[in-house]
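Q: I'm writing up a methods section and want to include an example of the input and output format. Could you take the sequence below and give the corresponding predicted structure tokens, formatted cleanly so I can copy it straight into the document?
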Amino acid sequence: MIKELEALAEHRAVQFLDQSEEIRSHYDSDISRFESTPTGPDLSPDPITTYTGVENVHTPSSSVMSPTEGVTVLSALNSYFPTHSHIGRFPDPTFSQRPNPLVRPSDTQHLVYQQPPNTPVLWPLENEQEAMLLQHYIHHIALFFDMVDDKDHFSSHVVRCAKQNSTLMNAILALSARQLSRTSDFDAYVADAYYQRCFQTLIPALNDSTAIQEESLLAATIILRLMEEMNISIIGSDPQGHLFGAQAFIRAAERQYAGTTGPSFRQAIYWAAFRQELWISLMARRPFRLHVFPADRSLDPANDSTWATRTIAHLGDVCNFVFGEERHSVARYDQLMSENRAWCERRPDSFDPFFHRQDRDQSGRNFPDIRFHEKMHVMGKQYITLAHVLLVVHDPTIPQLGPSHKQSRQLIDEKVQKDVRTLCGVAQSNGKVFPCKFPACFAIALFGDRFTDRQDQHRLREMLIQTEAEHGFPPTATIHQLEEAWGWSGC
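A: Here is the clean output for your methods example:
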């Protein structure tokens, strides 16, 4: 596998996601001068506001694969492991990033600090920009993964592991730079460079038979997967090349211990992969393709983190139902709806909001104000509500023809609007737990067309735009589709 990838790469020049034709021609003509020995770092006195022109860069040589060349980190992993030999090579998703006008050919060698060859990234970091990127990950990104983790593994343990693991550190820096490039004028080239650098150590690591047991390597694939998902439309495309990278790791780990009894760090990684597959399932409107490890779906007494993760497993079951072959089964539908109600009835009272106001003017149209005091309570509410609205819409007993269909559709739309407003209200009321905005955005993308009031539509549209502007995810490519469904195209 590795030899095949290297041979393939030899015939491909490096391209970056945000590369313009002008920059590309510059690489082709002057690639040799980037291979010189890098100079020392030229630290900027204000790394937060001065993102470009900071450090020396060593452009990866042509033997390094580019994410635009048909092989991403996860598709490469999937192709390598024999447990997935039946899976063919999938094309990469189309990236929507525009060429960055801030990058000029003369700037390309001053954007990314070049670590000396074969030198691990050790603390303290020598480069101010890398310190800024790591700090941004800790404070503004790690919660993507730690949203229901009471031990915050991705903001603590993962960062400690990255201290002596260059692959993991480069994945973190790539993701941090990618989000900054989507939420500010930070140069997108920086993320692409760290992405490439991560490949340089990730691909050779697969030659090692023990690599599959490396938790740091698994964490790196999960982090890179989120980075790649930031370039995918929220709905309508199936990023199949990204789906199975973590699969082989999870299967191999289960040879040592069950999916629910392994070390807490690996459990955190499993659940992060599981949630990512949830979003892919909703994006593409298709069932799970990730191996589902044994998850606790009981209603037995447990801590709040476990109760929250049960809602994630439940949402996965619901996605498999509504997008799978069982979607016409009334018995399965009744079972899932019963499980949804049972969770709401038997969950600990710690999940009760400490403040709940339905709306501010009693119109029934404003988003409710629902405040919780713990992040797992916020996310549990969001996941169980999103599962409920999916079940409401995909009720197999709904009449499909005749007057009763119109009447049923009206009742369903009322339930859908209530659930979507709840999701948006929780998202607005618990801003520090920013991942709670993502289930709301997916619900808007899936069911926003069921809102007919213009004020409602403006509120939903603003939620999508604001979330992407603040967090760089999820991409809002469906706004135009919603505007057309609302009849805004002629306005």
